[in-house]
Amino acid sequence: MQNCCSNCGAETNDSGDVHCRRLLKNEIEKLRSTGRIDAVINLLCTFQFKDKLSEDWKNLSFPENFQPAAPFNVSRDMETTDISPVLRKNGIYNLFHVTHKDNIESIKKYGIIPISEHESYGLKPTYASSTVSRDIEKRHKLDSYIKLAFIPVHPMFHLLPNLALLEIDMDQVFSRKDIMFCRVNSIRNDAELEDIINIGTLEFKILVECIKKQEKDLNYRPPNGSDEWHRCQAEILVPGKIPIEAIKIIKYK
Fold this sequence. Notes:
Elements: E1 3-4, E2 11-12, H1 18-33, H2 37-46, H3 84-89, E3 95-100, H4 104-110, H5 131-139, E4 145-149, E5 163-168, H6 170-173, E6 180-182, E7 194-195, H7 204-216, H8 227-231, E8 235-239, E9 247-252
Helix pairs in contact: 1-2
């Protein structure tokens, strides 16, 4: 029986956080050889290993008064982590994308295309979101991501007509880098994007309870404005397009 890394939640044969420590050490060795001390510090901060690795890396010297960048700015060349087992272990077996049903034909042709690339594909989609929300996405550079939900009937699914629900193959999605997640709807003022490697810290209990309720009643949705309502709008943000091969099922409202 496999263990789970205590740092990122990934299934591993190692105990504790050895899984992430090994990845971190390998990356630090590569960065040290190129003199990327700033990236080394970012890695230590991102993985919260400054204390744990202080003995291992006590000979590292850092510029005086150096302030590390936010964890988001860490080098993205690290080995890709398989996130699917983490989600399955926590009761999440599929991801979902909502779109207007008029967009299905173009999706079958091109896949799911982020808003920022619609023009280059010559697409004029029927949006399942408001102009205001798209303006926010563009302003915060979220329009280059495809948003995926954890629950089959997203709270917003009840608010708009003529929608289609796309069930997405997790294994194909997580084969790429630069994926982020958000604990609430990413266009909220207090929303923060997090590196997918930290997905093991997500509040899965709320999501799984909602999924179970929807399995019994597809019309179930959390009370509007409640904490459950907001938490059930947690998202995976995938950069670039999602190919048609990653779409398992298309359901219509």
